[in-house]
Amino acid sequence: MSDGIRSACGGMFQVYLTEDILTETLYWLRKNNPLLNEEQVGGIRRRLIRIFGDDSVITGYTIDESLSYRDVFDAHVHCAAVHGTIDMVLTANSADFDFADADELSYEVYSPDEFFQLIDDSNPRLVRQVTEEQMAYWVRRSGKALPGALRDSGTPGFAERVRVHLQSIDVREVLGSA
């Protein structure tokens, strides 16, 4: 992880990924945005590896063909998590990890909304600090407020927490330093 992210998160978590996850992410980014340039697509992969480090890439896993996958295209995520002894899988497709023996999984599955709320539970000062930074960013943009953008991104519970954080922030102070 980059020093900035590592220090900001205080060692709360380590991000792991696989080449398959990166490939799938970039595939959907390109499919949904065919006119993006190479830096906007390929640059994302390079930045992720630079931020999280080569040691964040899980390799050497095999697909367990004996399991019945709700979405066979997510088999690589499950098998990499097991192989990498990952504690938590963060996915917008939580239902795809509903195995018959889900209680026996070696990891927990969280949606982005659940994960960000967990971070707020664990370190509300960090969430407040990032909320201040993001507020300054979103105010400069025309359009919606930060809680609205978070709701639109599929994190309604976290959006409500950010709304509460915003109520205790001195807007003049934050925008004066922006």
What does this structure look like?
This protein is mainly alpha-helical and 178 residues long. Helix content is 55%, strand content 3%. The chain has 9 helices and 2 strands. The longest helix is centred in the last third of the chain and has 17 residues, at 124-140. Mean pLDDT is 87; it is low at 1-6.
Question: What attributes characterize this protein structure?
Answer:
178 residues, mainly alpha, two-stranded parallel sheet, 9 helices, 55% helix, globular, disordered N terminus
Largest sheet: 2 strands, parallel
Task: Report the average pLDDT across residues.
Answer: 87
For the terminal residues, how far apart are their CA atoms?
26 Å
Strand content bin: under 5%
Radius of gyration: 18 Å
Count every beta strand, where a strand is a DSSP E run of 2 or more residues. Answer: 2
Name the shape in a single word.
globular
Which range best describes the helical content: under 10%, 10-25%, 25-40%, 40-55%, 55-70% or over 70%? 55-70%
